[in-house]
Amino acid sequence: MVDLLDRVELDGAFGTVKYIGSLPNWGDGVTAYGIEWDDPQRGKNNGTLGNTRYFSVDKPNSGSFVKASNKRLRFGRLFVKAVLEKYAGDENVLALKREIVFGSKKVESIGFERLNRQQATLEALESVSCEKTMVQFAGDVEKLPLMEKVKHLDLSYNLLVDMGELKKITEKMPRLRSLNLNGSQLRTFGAQIVLVEELDAASCGISEENLGKLLRCFPNLRRLCFAGNKLRSFKIEFSASLRSIDLSYNELLELPVLPVEELSAANNQITRLPRRASPTRILDLRDNPILSWKEIDMVAESFPDLEELRIDGCKLFDKLSIDEMTAMLVGRLLCLSHRGQGISKLNGSDLLADEIRNSELYIVSKAQKGQIDLLSQNRWEQLLKKYNLERKATTLQRHPDRFLVTMRTLSGDLMFSRVFLLTNTVLRLKGIVTRHTGVPVHRFNLYYYPSDIRLDDDVSKTILDDDIATLASTGLDNECRIYYEPHMI
């Protein structure tokens, strides 16, 4: 017997019965089902035929009509039957239909030997998977043994709609911790399942209002996946036990502030980050239309305890290479090569000390030349302190076609100062040095430190070894210091 709002499946597509009756095109002798499909692409209309509306749909063009006699149309079945078929074998399910009589009482006969084998099989399971088995009702769960070892239950892409039926199923699994309900269109709530700590409820078509009802059914959740549910906001109260939330593939416009350690909001429509702090340590913001470096800087302000960040694929980085994107992110955000108060894993890769240092020096140089958006004040102060830099303006004043070069010895003593044209070559500079020292150009090196940042291992040391390069192309800036290093004889 099919009722309105029953769930059905046809050729792998899931839907809800919205109409039962006849249609003029098929005649009074043919029963028609009007179905709204979960995937609108499976639909053909809005529940109308001609000028008559037979049912309403929530999503445009997600409805169609199917004859009740369609042999491919499948309806809800019992969990008990599904689990016995999968784990106990078809012969045991057939044996369930036989009956024996003890006195005046009829009981089902499964054959005691087979029953023992079946129970032993089910009792040994640690994980039960009944994915895509059309489960809608629990059935007589007393036919099942107590499955004390089961910790993981997969009921994804079934026809479940009632939390009461789900509770009956899980009562036979006293140690259940993880539950997968992906693709299930639950709409009747109330029954609580207190043991479950991890819940997957992706692509369930549940509204934000019903999501709140669903969460109240699982008061002890630690991890929740609610991806792909077309949420535009997430303003729901949830248990303090929750530590991880996956909100990827929704339609969020702004990242919600949630008191969780791990938050995924990849593949949304987020352009703005929150302006108040969150305790999140692991954050995934991949593939969002973030367009401003100011919002990137807000990552540090909004997530002071962040240790892992994924943010590649955002529109802001479309014109940057992977190396450029990484350098910009590492330079603008507090990063560490070890676990601590700072990001140690970026876009799936552990950060190395040299990578962090080079990126920070790169950012300092770019900022001082005015070639990038200004860093946040907090980040700029961190970099000044870390590299013992003098506070100075982030853009240098210089003549439009020339700049001042100060030549110094290895010990830092002044050799000479001179103004050069930006179009002068490195060889021209070396020629001037030869005039002052009498040493041929092939007997010495010239080098500088970007933004005058000199580290103990000279990792930032930049040698001027391309004689035909213009001084403007080498990265030198106004009032730069260049060091003279004669070759050892």
TrEMBL record:
Pfam families associated with the record: CAP_GLY
UniProtKB keywords: Chaperone, Leucine-rich repeat, Repeat
Superkingdom as given in the UniProt entry: Eukaryota
Domain CAP-Gly: 34-67
Listed GO CC annotations: cytoplasm
Keyword Acyltransferase annotated: no
Matches recorded under InterPro entries: CAP-Gly_dom_sf (IPR036859), CAP-Gly_domain (IPR000938), Leu-rich_rpt (IPR001611), LRR_dom_sf (IPR032675), LRR_domain-containing (IPR050216), Ubiquitin-like_domsf (IPR029071)
Family annotation (PANTHER family): PTHR48051, RAS SUPPRESSOR PROTEIN 1
Name of this chain's protein: CAP-Gly domain-containing protein
Originating organism: Candidozyma auris (Yeast)
